[in-house]
Design brief:
Organism: Marinomonas profundi
Oligomer: single chain
CATH superfamily of the largest domain: P-loop containing nucleotide triphosphate hydrolases
CATH architecture of the largest domain: 3-Layer(aba) Sandwich
Subcellular location: Cell membrane
Membrane topology: Peripheral membrane protein
Number of strands: 12
Helix content: 25-40%
Order of helices and strands: EEEHEEHEHHHEHEHEEHHEE
Shape: globular
GO cellular component, one term: plasma membrane
CATH topology of the largest domain: Rossmann fold
Number of helices: 9
Protein name: ABC transporter ATP-binding protein
Strand order of the largest sheet: 6-7-8-3-9-10
């Protein structure tokens, strides 16, 4: 992950940003409101971490923003237009979602998986072209998978597999990328691999939002934090602005101390202890 942003930047993405947000958004599961009357906008070209306790609506919000979950009221806006009014292929060219649970056919290679990211760009009149292969090569390069492209997906480590799924989203060539718990079940080394890839994509101009359970990682690898509780955004801003002992206590029932990271200045949580009622 040491190459410069310009070396790994897709030509179609260098000068194109998309804006994504929601106005008075209400999302329900059945008759139960999970999120009600929420306003949010993702900072362009930044990494946003959505944090909060289990069941607070983090993944529901991500699914609502990506058009997977239809709102009961309110609107999700993509470049100022109701996302549900746009053709599916048009949305897929601007926004990619990597869900928590990913499934691939048996016996598929990394490169074959990444090819699926080009589907929004295909049609009866436009079949596979040189720019499709260029997009795949770019995605392999960006995810540091060039030497593994012929490997079967199910023979890879957890971190390599997750990078392959992100590479598929990169090949989709969208300026927006939403990731639901991208480091779930990964060990520390593989978590760092994935978070560094996400940071590199942001440096290339992409706008990313990710649901993150690990608060220290959210502080270290994001530019913007959205803190949620019971379906509401209770505070948002940069990690330095919003992360306080009081917020950690309110979200998780944990006492801690905060010190600045000596390299990045982002908050580090220490002396963590569960509050017992």
């Amino acid at each position: 992950m040491t190459a410069t942003a310009s070396q790994h930047q897709s030509p179609s993405q260098r000068h194109f940003q998309s804006r994504l947000g929601a106005d008075n958004l209400t999302l329900k599961h059945g008759k139960i409101s999970i999120i009600e009357g929420l306003d949010v906008a993702l900072p362009e070209g930044k990494v946003t971490a959505i944090v909060g306790p289990n069941g607070c609506g983090k993944s529901t919000l991500l699914n609502g923003l990506s058009r997977v979950h239809s709102p009961s009221s309110g609107v999700v806006l993509l470049d100022g237009k109701d996302i549900h009014s746009l053709p599916s292929k048009e949305v897929a060219k601007r926004l990619a979602l990597l869900p928590q649970d990913t499934l691939a056919p048996d016996g598929i290679t990394i490169e074959e998986l990444i090819r699926f990211g080009r589907h929004p760009h295909q049609s009866l009149l436009r079949q596979w072209a040189m720019d499709d292969q260029q997009a795949i090569n770019y995605a392999l390069n960006a995810a540091d998978l060039e030497g593994l492209k012929d490997r079967l997906l199910d023979t890879l480590s957890g971190g390599q597999r997750q990078r392959a799924w992100i590479a598929m989203s990169i090949a989709q060539e969208t300026p927006l990328l939403l990731l639901d718990e991208p480091t779930s079940a990964l060990d520390l080394g593989h978590q760092i691999e994935v978070f560094e890839l996400i940071q590199n994509l942001s440096r290339q101009g992409k706008t990313l939002a990710m649901v993150v359970h690990d608060l220290p990682s959210a502080c270290r690898y994001s530019d913007h934090i959205i803190a949620m509780k019971k379906g509401e955004i209770i505070i948002q801003g940069s990690p330095k602005e919003v992360m306080t002992k009081e917020l950690v206590r309110e979200l998780y029932g944990v006492d801690c101390d905060l010190i600045p990271d000596p390299m990045t200045g982002s908050p580090i949580l220490i002396n963590m202890k569960r509050i017992r009622n």
